[in-house]
Specification:
The complex is a heterodimer of chains A (113) and B (114). Chain A is mainly β and 113 residues long. Helices cover 0% and strands 58% of the residues of chain A. Chain B has one domain (4-97, 106-113): Sandwich (Immunoglobulin-like). Chain B is built from no helices and 11 strands. In chain B, the strands form 2 sheets. In chain B, strands 2, 4, 5, 6, 9, 10 and 11 form a 7-stranded mixed sheet that branches. In chain B, strand 4 and strand 5 form a beta hairpin. The chains are: A mainly beta (113), B mainly beta (114).
């Protein structure tokens, strides 16, 4: 069964203090690894898709990287508006589960002034 | 201009009642989903429809029945509600038959069963 584990569960940063969130996964044939951002009371918002080990994608202060076992979401010089829960998800390709995402439980990030 | 809209946003009901949640998307996407998010923020897929065809039906009690009258709408009907059904239910849509280009989620329906 596909599994996604995110760490840490919660992270508190000072504004400008860079850090990384981790997503470890076990999947039969990775088709894509996804990062989403979820604000309180809202649905998850799509950030990135990574398809193969070594791939990197950037968006403003966020950079996502992928290896064969995990993905990192690096946050450079975060601002309070980056506070949210960041969700990682995988799409498998070999077990017939190709049409769904399996999510982790997220990292709750709080950035303080 | 909401891309994926769900109604109602909040739903409080008594055990044993039957309720429905509606979802509509105006993105022209082919596939729609229902996900359940529990109190620990864990999102788990329930159902998926592609052009009105059911393509994912996870292990969900048969009290839950999805219905897709057309590819822009996916509704969720729940019979005989139980306390454990309390959660946030998200509708989502994607292009093609799967999520490779990312899902677009609705804002969720918070269901509370008392």
């Amino acid at each position: 069964e596909d599994q996604v584990t995110q760490s840490p569960e919660a992270l508190r940063l000072q504004e400008g203090e860079s850090s990384s969130l981790n997503c470890s996964y076990t999947v039969s044939g990775l088709r894509g690894l996804f990062w989403y951002r979820q604000d309180p009371g809202k649905g998850p918002e799509f950030l990135f898709t990574l398809y193969s080990a070594g791939e990197e994608k950037e968006k403003e202060r966020l950079k996502a990287t992928l290896t064969k076992k995990e993905s990192f979401l690096h946050i450079t010089a975060p601002k309070p508006e980056d506070s949210a829960t960041y969700l990682c998800a995988v799409q498998a390709g070999l077990t017939g589960g190709g049409n769904k995402l399996t999510f982790g439980t997220g990292t709750q990030l709080k950035v303080e002034l | 201009d909401t891309a994926v809209s769900q109604t109602p946003k909040y739903l409080v009901t008594q055990m044993g009642n039957d309720k429905s949640i509606k979802c509509e998307q105006n993105l022209g996407h082919d596939t729609m989903y229902w996900y359940k998010q529990d109190s620990k923020k864990f999102l788990k897929i329930m159902f998926s429809y592609n052009n009105k065809e059911l393509i994912i039906n996870e292990t969900v009690p048969n009290r839950f029945s999805p219905k897709s009258p057309d590819k822009a709408h996916l509704n969720l009907h729940i019979n005989s509600l139980e306390l454990g059904d309390s959660a946030v239910y998200f509708c989502a849509s994607s292009q093609g038959r799967g999520p490779l280009y990312g899902y677009t989620f609705g804002s969720g329906t918070r269901l509370t069963v008392v």
